[in-house]
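Hmm, what's this shape?
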Amino acid sequence: MPCQAKEIPVELVWKLGQAGWVEIEVEQGDYQLIVDKTTLEFPTGSTLQVGWGGWAPVLRINHGEFQVSGESSVLELKRINPGSLRVKTPEGQDVVYRGGLKLNWQDSHWRLINTVDSEDYLKGVVPIEMSNEWAKGGIEGLKAQAVAARTFLVKHTENGKTITDSPDIDQAYAGKNVEGEASGAVEATRGEILVDAQSRLPIEALYSSHSGGYTEDAKNVWGNPDIHNVSHPDPYSQGVGGAVNHWRFIVSAPLLGSTFGLGPVRNIELDKFPSGRVKSVRMDDGFGQSKTVTGRTFVKAFYPFGQPIRTAAFLGSFFEAQQIPPSQELLEKSSFAVFLETKGSQKEQGPLLSKILSSSVGTSAASQPFGVFLFEGRGWGHGVGMSQWGAYHMAQLGYNYKEILLFYYNNTRIQPAQG
């Protein structure tokens, strides 16, 4: 059965995707190091360094002499018994992975694939997709996440496919470092997956951080209809989540226009899906030019990639737009005055809105006469499938993980654990 535990390959691209130099230490257990046709015993404490020199890949075993490795060679750290490997890079990455590791030199960097038991893999997924802290009062939400993540894994490793550790491509996986209370949720649901109620085949178990109070239809995000991921009201995601529950973003009319090749924007029109998420944004400037972009394109232009999530950020396509006119009197008396952090972590009332470039960029020295646009939104992520904050809230209200999953995924059932 597809939901039985098995060893799976996970390509490590999130933190180690362009690694030129890597050091691997056997943290626990006994391994074999296989280099081409040579096999070496590799017990706890053994080290392997791989890098490059003169455009050729090199390797170093247990602090010995560096050896040139053939560009077509494949290295493998194969576990003999349960163990873990610590992987470090000169850039400061330090991650521990259960299972084994395969390495090969490809396109001037080392490609790393972690071969790991599927249930151990999930123990490195659930706490980073949600939080170990949610086990206190929200363990049923973590169980729901474990089943959804396991289903996603089964679906995306069919026919020998390799899954990645990247949240931008598949689902976040951070190895042994993040293991904690959430492991109990993985164990409690061992082997269970979501399947279609009729065919009993695994579904596409999609999820995101916060639905904003209304889940989205899969076809409105990726273009393909999916009877298991349909749009519906989600009251459990309302009023929870802090910054992701309600956020606000301000941008000047000139900066908004220049971002999309226009002059200062004078008018915005939003076309929305039935859920309330923005399908497209039409912008008109003062020179008679107009431009229409998809809601996703608009969000990507201002999304805080690589930055901490906060209320003054553009987090998704569930938003309203409001123009604040360029009247100096209105700007001075506006109820939307922003607050900027000072060096002493104290807060003072910020400058006139006419000086603001955007919530993320900051201010300019001079005012501009074209006004600003205020975007107020809720939710974080694509909104399809399970809302993680909604699942957590449902757990706090006393719902069990099966009830949570059946609320978010249409026409499904939970496949009993096998073996």
